[in-house]
Amino acid sequence: MPHMSFSSTLAAIDGWLAEYAPLTLRDLPPPATGAELAAVRAQLGVDLIKDVEELLRWHNGAGRATPAFCLAPGYAFLGTADMIALSRRRVAEDEARPMWRTWNRHWLPVAAGRRGKCLAVDHSDSDSHGNVLVSSTEDGRDFPKTWPDLGAVLARSHEAMRYGSRFMKSRRTVLDGRLDWEEA
């Protein structure tokens, strides 16, 4: 399948939701405002990666959608206020335990999972700039799962929505116009 641009992937997700899960689409909030984007930039201390800004200009998180709209199965899309709050919490947790760091202050959490896991986009000035990783507050012995960028994650989620294929040990379900994911 040819690789779609990031904006095309977002439009395709909107189109799929409109056709198959219209209540999920209806409950997604409007785009983030300039002030909300500025607050995220201030928390990170660096400019937002283009795809992250475009994501937030698409919808500012999952809003009141129930079940929550997930960027990847099991990872609910965070709005700007929740991104900032989770980032601050992770930075504070690391400061409280200087010998065991699990967070980089230039990671931006974009989706929250269970048991302290989140999807974070690396905004640091390093070789991993732009990568998306699964971060956990637990002492993980395995190297975290990563993707080259947010576009790769959303393209894979869209593919799983569209074809009902397995992604991150889950398959999409639609019940009463709402998208959800179940273990598969």
* CATH architectural group: 3-Layer(aba) Sandwich
Fraction of residues in β-strands: 15-25%
Order of helices and strands: HHHHEEHEEEEHEE
Give the structural class.
Answer: alpha+beta
- Low-pLDDT stretches: none
The number of helical segments is 6
Number of domains: 1
CATH topology assignment: SMI1/KNR4-like
Question: What is the CA-atom radius of gyration, in angstroms?
Answer: 16 Å
Strand line-up in the sheet with most strands? 1-2-3-4-5-6
* Averaged pLDDT: 91
CATH class: Alpha Beta
3D shape:
globular
Topology, number of strands: 8
Topology of this structure?
Elements: H1 6-20, H2 22-27, H3 34-44, H4 50-58, E1 70-72, E2 75-77, H5 80-96, E3 107-112, E4 118-122, E5 132-135, E6 146-147, H6 150-163, E7 170-175, E8 178-183
Antiparallel strand pairs: 1-2, 2-3, 3-4, 4-5, 5-6, 7-8
Describe the structure.
This protein has 184 residues and is of the alpha+beta class. It has one domain (6-172): SMI1/KNR4-like (3-Layer(aba) Sandwich), CATH 3.40.1580.10. 39% of the residues lie in helices and 19% in strands. The protein has helices at 6-20, 22-27, 34-44, 50-58, 80-96, 150-163, and strands at 70-72, 75-77, 107-112, 118-122, 132-135, 146-147, 170-175, 178-183. A 6-stranded antiparallel beta sheet has the order 1-2-3-4-5-6, with helices on both faces. It has a two-stranded antiparallel ribbon with strand order 7-8. The longest helix is centred in the middle third of the chain and has 17 residues, at 80-96. The model has no long low-confidence stretch (mean pLDDT 91).
